[in-house]
Specification:
The structure is a homotrimer of 495-residue chains. Chain A is mainly α and 495 residues long. Chain A folds into three domains: 90 residues, no CATH class; 117 residues, no CATH class; 254 residues, Up-down Bundle (Hydroxylamine Oxidoreductase, Chain A, domain 2), CATH 1.20.850.10. Chain A contains 20 helices and eleven strands. In chain A, strands 7-8-9 form a three-stranded mixed β-sheet, covered by helices on one side. Chain A has a two-stranded antiparallel ribbon with strand order 1-2. In chain A, strands 3-4 form a two-stranded antiparallel sheet. The longest helix of chain A is centred in the last third of the chain and has 34 residues. Chain A is globular and about 80 Å long.
């Protein structure tokens, strides 16, 4: 009775939204809610606040193309005239879901995947698949160079006889570390029976769960997790458009995008004035809805100005990215394909540049494609800035890419010299020894910070806050270390 | 006249709140306000915005137990039917207050203490006394090991003859440093006469003032400061429930709880969507009032979901904490007693573990108590997450406790080796020399960051932002340092 | 038609604001808007939200002095009765603007300068000129010591023959780094013709553009940029009063003012409760409008309490600053003149103190002036705190200045010893070598952080977060480095 009453209210409260039609919850979803509004009240409440709970696919499709938030061609029949509730997602494509299980008469799966979301949002899911992010798991795990970096970071070390020994990282640690963002493999290990308030029930036992990583390998074979940004169970566009979502994975010293944004003029305007902005409209109107961009404005959203479309929505975020400034090892033109394990540099390593900076050009976008992408991005800039301003900004930014690459080269030359002279050894991996770790920080922390700062005019992140100051100091310390090491001729006494 | 008019307005403006009765300000408080609304307008205005200025104790007691914000049994008679104004707190328990002084005919004290607050909130004050926080002053100052750490951080150094000399820290520095959070001893040094707009007046001269530290030693002998979290003079529950309050002491690299929360999915939801949440209700309804937890939700508040109580309010925050992940030196089961100076490890030091990690078990809670506390915490999680999700999260978290302890052990072994081989010396303290400070960072900064990240799924704080990367690098640098040191056989030339 | 209709609406929407009169847009500005509302919709929309677009100078002048936001004596005639639109600023003082150019029949300039803003705000512009900030460009570029620091940070290094070579920084890098905050020289290099939607047009080519640095050298010879804080094109007082604006340049490890504020009790109150505060009123009423200060409250704003003026507005922010705690090299009494290149210490260097800390007293304010400024600042404090509280706070703060200077001296003595013994060399500059960079961090990062923390009671920034812990550790590492260096007698082998 309780649920029916709530549903009845919902119909009235939401009627007229988008379509004028009533918005019925399916019988299946109503059954879910009946129990789970008690067991997991937070989830149900979040969903009740969502657009999903208020608009049917048919209504979502019926608005003008510019305002449209769905991209399917055909309204999927059983779903056309019910709102998108629990059952609509968690019982969809059951046949592909290894995590599907019998649950009170339904075939339910735990992990809702991009393939499920593609029912209503096929264009976005397809675009998303062209991002490095969608391959974030494999790009890390299937690249032997990066795997060695992962091991050097996450493996436990022990100390004996004046030497540290590095062990392989365990699976739980990996899920708790790199894979939080890169994604885990969520697979079904088996099924377990649990005593519940409803009696004995069986549930799948999953590997790598929980996880909302952008490159998650799902039990239906798909990759990624829409809820990484469109946070469950409200899935709001407001959430995805505010910079905090991106900050979850883009805030560390390796990729300080959010930190830089936060101190940029754009970020300051967002923080100071954003309370009066409107984060929901599609298209997103620059000037009317917002007075400065967030991450999504420049990289993702369908943006309009004064009624005209400025840029089309894209979930292939690199559509507007000429460069990959997050350099392993040097900043370089953006890779062509989302799977970066196919790249081979001159030395045969799966890296987008040589150790000395030369790009593995055939795997990277052309100068012409860079121009196109730069132009697309600049269209957003031009909504609030003059051509002169925008060109000046990009000239500086691309100069900074060049100069930070030179500083990476200088540090690399120190390391190459250390390897050559036997002060360090490349044999046990590129990332294990103290001097190698300093070298990693040169490009992964300091050069990256400087470039992110330059890209968004983030002031001190390009100077003292892990920027040029750190690059300059690290370089001096690497050189000094090498000199000390070469002076110490005798082997250390054994304990 | 001015004040009376304001009070008259207040009665009307607030009538009906909670009780329907008029809310009179006591004559004593009215007298305070008459002057202080001019001299300290900010304080008076803040109080006027507070619930204290609007609800009498009788009214506060009269609501249903679940909604109740006071915990006294008997309404304290002179206070029952006036709102809680200046005089109600600042003249309370005068006889116990060494800081009490004659002030325009009143016996006033400066420092309002938990013992004063206990008049209306005895249960909370009692619970709070069971926290490590309530003993934060003594736990630091009366533990010789920690005192030595304090000295190594806050003592001024000088340089002569190629050696640095460490001096004892001065009292002002200590009040400005560690004791800002841990609390000072607020004692009465004497009384001073000052020329004021009201003529000559006498005021107490206090040691360690100002201070709102959680373990403050008060002039009435009580410990702590409720206003550390319930900021004066608004004392709002909104303030205590928002994460910024906790961040004041839990943000540094030693205890990055807020930083991790901020980049966690929970934190992102709070930042993006929190503007629409409700921070005032008691109980606090998950889903309805908030869509994601703040610090207070998991650690303190009376939380309900769909009308049912999920967890009871507790001001003994460790009620929901199986582990103390802030390890000096290793993470360990939570101490039984708030006073940690009573702990003795095998080596006889007042530390919860041995240098090699073995817990001083008799002073720490049992595995069974850990299970109970874990279960209490998980009840909050289960409001929005499935059992499988929650178990998966805790399995990872407890694995990370184990692995970070292993990384602390590895670093400790380097230090023990350095001490043994004479490359460093334990005699002058555990924390003074460069290599000892690196060792401290291993557990105090990096292992802690990794564990906090794991506890809240804070992504990069467990990897590159002071997490595993830093542990791994620090370990390599410690080993390298030891080798350098052992190679340098001759003593340095004397200047 | 479109624009006229908008203007018509505007008159009605805004009539009555401040003056009751209609608020007409000038014909010139209307002509700008007609095209630019399409080409740069964001700018026009921002302006439409601004007070500039709603209030004429005559109306702005007509309010009571306390509420007044303009400071001119005579209403500038052509501007008196139109709102301040595009043309009013971008065609003003054309004769002085080297960046002025023919644009559709108007003489337009790109860069609006303090000299332009002074038409309506002469007092503020004049005060601003007395800040170090207004000389931020020259203070950095015309001081040979600081220039050498700039080079050591921004110059690219290369590595050959076991030595690093430092090159001069290029102009684009400087604009992207230090000069983002300090300001660039914006000069006219020439004019370029560009194909636009309106046909071929000519635009000035500017050096150092874009830039909003506080010490920008403008094409009309003036210094600074009001839009650094009063962000274009909304120019709102809300923006300038919220702490994010200041954070753009005051957030790095060298000057962590915002970071400290953020974790201070004041900052926590702002973050938790600020959503209900009022950032627009002039004067700004403590208690009524805000319950805790932001940067602007203490350093800039016209503040009142309970109807009385507490402090007058000042755009010479050092009016309330007894000390310059951002020490190059030691904290010291605030410099008298904004141009710090005139300072000479005993050694003849343009530094406010000797290397050993003795102030270059004749260039710094007197103890009496310090007392005056301290008293002005304390007036703000006293709005919410007792005299005892405020004095206790300042006693600690000034002790911390002293103690951090002592820690800087200790580190300086290590460096002086290194120079003397030939372990490092002063000849190639003070900031290039690894040990010199460590020394810089002692005062620029750690002593500064500790002092900022002390000034605002920012807890961990004075202890573990780049505070005393870092000073103590850095000191030990500097000493250890020196010992290592002196032990290594032989020169390193040449490659």
């Amino acid at each position: 009775m309780k649920f029916l009453f709530a549903a009845f209210l919902a119909v009235f409260a939401f009627s007229g939204e988008a379509s004028g039609a009533d918005v019925p919850v399916s019988e299946d979803s109503a059954a879910c809610i009946e129990c789970h509004s008690t067991f997991n009240a937070g989830i149900v409440s979040a969903w009740e606040k969502s657009r999903m709970s208020k608009v049917t696919p048919r209504a979502a499709k019926s608005v003008a193309p510019k305002q449209r938030r769905v991209s399917f061609d055909q309204i999927p029949d059983p779903f056309a005239d019910v709102v998108v509730g629990c059952a609509e997602c968690h019982t969809l494509n059951s046949e592909n879901h290894k995590d599907s299980f019998e649950h009170n008469g339904y075939k339910v799966h735990v992990v809702v995947t991009p393939q499920d979301c593609a029912t209503c949002h096929p264009v976005e899911v397809n675009q998303y698949g062209k991002n490095l992010m969608s391959e974030a798991y494999g790009n890390l795990e299937n690249n032997p160079v990066y795997r060695s970096l992962v091991k050097s970071v996450t493996g436990v070390q022990s100390f004996k006889g004046l030497a540290a020994t590095l062990m392989d990282p365990d699976e739980l640690t990996l899920s708790d570390a790199c894979r939080q963002c890169h994604g885990t493999v969520v697979d079904v290990k088996g099924f377990a029976t649990r005593e519940t308030d409803q009696g004995e029930m069986s549930f799948p036992v999953l590997t790598g769960w929980p996880n909302q990583g952008v490159g998650r390998i799902n039990p239906d074979g798909s990759k990624g997790s829409c809820s990484a940004c469109h946070t469950r169970h409200q899935f709001g566009i407001e959430m995805a458009r505010k910079p905090y979502t991106c900050s979850q994975c883009h805030k560390g010293p390796d990729v300080p995008a959010y930190k830089v944004y936060e101190v940029s003029k754009h970020g300051n305007m967002y923080s100071a004035l954003g309370h009066g902005w409107n984060f929901d409209p599609v298209p997103w109107n620059i000037g009317k809805d917002i007075s400065a961009p967030t991450c999504a404005t420049c990289h993702v959203s369908l943006v309009s100005a004064d009624g005209d479309i400025v840029v089309e929505r894209t979930h292939q975020m690199n559509d507007r990215l000429p460069w990959r400034i997050f350099g392993p090892i040097y900043a370089h033109p953006h890779p062509k394909a989302p799977d970066t394990t196919i790249i081979k540099n001159k030395a045969g390593l799966p890296l987008p540049t040589d150790l000395t900076g030369e790009p593995a050009a055939e795997y990277l976008i052309s100068a012409e494609e860079q121009r196109e992408r730069r132009k697309t991005m600049q269209k957003v800039c031009l909504s609030c800035h003059s051509q002169t301003w925008v060109e000046g900004h990009f000239e500086r930014f691309e100069n900074t890419i060049k100069k930070t690459n030179e500083m990476t080269l200088a540090a690399t030359n120190v390391l190459l010299s250390a390897w050559k002279k036997g002060a360090a050894s490349q044999k046990d991996g590129l990332f294990n020894e103290a001097i190698e770790k300093r070298w990693v920080e040169q490009w992964l922390f300091y050069a990256n910070s400087t470039r992110f700062s330059s890209a968004m005019a983030g002031a001190d992140y390009g100077v003292f806050a892990n920027g040029r100051w750190a690059m300059a100091k690290n370089m001096q310390e690497m050189v000094e270390w090498l000199k000390f090491k070469l002076q110490a001729k005798e082997p250390p006494p054994r304990s």
